[in-house]
Amino acid sequence: MKTETGKNSGGPRLRTPDRAQVVMKVESPEALISAGHRARIIWQVVESMDLSAFHDPIKARDGVCGRDATSPKLLVALWLYACIRGVGSARELARLCIESRPFLWLCGGVTVNHHLLSDFRVKHAQALDDLMSRTIAMLVDKRLVKVYRVSQDGTRLRACAGASSYRRHERLNRLLEAATAHVAELKALLADPERSAGLSARQKAARQRAARERQARVEQAIAALPRLEQKQKQLAKKIAKKDKEKKLKEPRASTTDADARVMKMGDGGFRPAMNVQLAVDTESRAIVGVDVVNEGSDHHLSEPMRKQVEQRTGQKVHEHLMDGGFLVKEEIERAAEEGVTLYVPPKPPRNKELRDSEYEPMAGESQMLTDWRARMGSAAGKEIYKQRASTVETVNADLKTHRGLDRLRVRGLGKVKCLALWAALAYNVLHFSTALVG
To answer: Whole-angstrom Cα distance, residue 277 to residue 302?
Structure first.
């Protein structure tokens, strides 16, 4: 009905929430996602995998008392799909298993919590590494991966360690004494019924665990100092040749993560980090090698990676592409003796009067180094070297941007390598799912 002015006289009709309305709804978990959903593809891939190594530590067995263990197949599928979705937190994954339809479909009525998910992610390092190798071997058998030419690159990821947690030897000893005394005091307090009357069994266990972990982290930091001191001495000898008056600072270790080292990051700043190394097949763009080190430099990391790739694939690497940070002349010569051609840019000459270009031969160098300089200066060599940036660097960016490997949320080299393996495995599964299922 309209008024004389032509405007509506009635109020607007709106749809408003009615949360008190009872709805009878019958739904099967199978109907939560569409037939071609990516979660279904991940489940098909996982079903085709050999996960027997993940079953070995399970204590729940037929004829033995205790609750049933959660299926490793489900946990592997959850973490692979989480990495594909860019989820890197166990708490976030546990929340999605309650709220997200694809994760609810994967769970199929099985409940999981963040403790279970977090422990599974880092407690099966060898089984996870073997699974990565079997996946790569399957791609090689199907002639999708050749590894004739591989490219390698490292990326420094912010470690789960405080920037102010680094202490020198004297300070660490004092912290260890304090942590040991705290453990003893806590033990005496919990042993006294009157003083600990207000604490539940769960609170007591939590306090004991926190005290033990604090003491263990300080002990790990002290144990890491001898290795740091040895490296410091080697570095001091090199610096002494250039600047005899310069003195290095006393080495320090982190009480948060003893494996973390302060490294120069991509933005020029210095922060606690770890160096994640990847090797990629340039033709298929598959990740064929994963490693994690706590060295800020990429020196001497090409040979171990090449051996790892050959061990995982059973194939010979003939050409190896890497950036200038990997340059070690002795390794170029050893690679040439093994029949491997390295593509790594030489350093520019310090004295332009003696040598106009880094591609010119240097007096006293071997023929293998002369050939390497000529190769890197040729048009064909430069064209091949372009594949390094277009393969491994884009894969590195993919893992950091889309697979949850942007910042480390665990401590220790072993656990960090597990995270890198999950991300690399998810990447391979995502890009070769059809071949892995078939």
So the answer is: 9
